[in-house]
Amino acid sequence: MRIPHSRAGGLLALAALLGVSACGVGTPTASQPSTVAQAPQLAPGQQVSIVFESYNFGLAGTWTDTFNELIGQFEKKFPNIKVTPQKPNGSDPNPAHNSTSSVQTEIAAGNPPDVAQLGFDTLAFAAGQLGAQPLDDLYGTSEVDSEFGGQFPYANAIRTIGNVDGKTYGVPFVLSTPVLYYNATLFKQAGLNPDNPPKTWAEVQQDGAKIKQATGKDGAYADCLVRSASDWCFQSLVRSAGGRVLSQDRKQLTYDQAPTVQAVKQMQDMVTAGAMPKLSQVQATAAFPRGDLGMMLESSAAQGGYLKGAQGAGWELRAAPMPSFGDKPTVPTNSGAALYVFSKDPAKQRAAWELIKFLTSAGAYDVITSKIGYLPLRLGLLDDPAHLKPWADKNPMIKPNVAQLQHIEPWVAFPGTSFQQIRDTMMDAVEKSVFQGADPQTSLTAAAKQTASLLPGGGK
Q1: Could you give the CA distance from residue 364 to residue 73 in angstroms, rounded to a whole number?
Q2: Cβ atoms within 10 A of the Cβ of 446, count?
């Protein structure tokens, strides 16, 4: 979780455009769907305390500050509900990577969070194994439908990406796409035109090499190619190259096929040519805001932090759409997360619902989008002068991210209880190929064979 194109057609058309976002993607299923009793309304003045676990509380600066602000606003609106913010436990320096295992450990210990923010790759596992509560049963279908409606409704495709077996388990919360951020100051120093950023990966390699040669600074980095980056952004590269990581029937691993191999080989060529440095995710995400890296393919959620870094270091930040592989159309996938209810206590369940509704309200998205850069899932806010239109007009870097919604596809979750092992093995093979010079075809084929048996049905 680190987190564009022109605003073609206008922002009001985005809801209709999102109708194609789920095409060709299998629908996740829960192995143990459940029905639960409906949570009653809280009595007037009834005091309730709940725990909200979110990786945002483990990220310093913009993320933690923004979410602490929102929790403060919520407690003023609901003085009878006390919210304890909690970051995931785990050894990974990126707290988002600890979220699922943290909740799993807490559930095993009998102390689950009441509300948790988990990535979309966890959806089927959260519903089938972790015990996330089906919200349609807990609060009633009409109330859930009302949450997604109102003056600024969710787009239809977004509304259902937290569904399993026809029920809503996760309320989509934050969403971002891969954006090519670039240092316009370094572009000028290298004799490049910052008004004409690279549109293809071949151009990224060419421009990155020029930046390295002319300035001594590193050229470009795609934060999609190491295990610590997870695989949401890598899936964007795979789909943009014409490949898939998983067959459409969700029964076979397909990331060792030619399109993916070719995409990994092109990333490897960038390293070989000196256009991409051999950096870890932590090193690269620190180098870019310092001004030591010319281009960075990263989540739109990084916008706020990069702006602050650029201003402090005295260079100009700009953003462009994700580059393509030649003339193939780009297919960005989404990062981000949904909000789940894990509490079994009726009063806490109701308080959890009030928190979820607040965090996905128009006012909350005004804050989240303007301060962090995540897309407001209530897209009409971007066109409303009383909400995000003034901010959007003053922040043109949102345009590439918004426009990529025209052809977004959901982040595909590997099925089964071993989904993380499958993902990590795949990303280890990618990292080994790109940064250590291993043969992409050999590495990806070995990884796919190694983990095929972990799929339900043994990958057959």
Answers
A1: 9
A2: 16
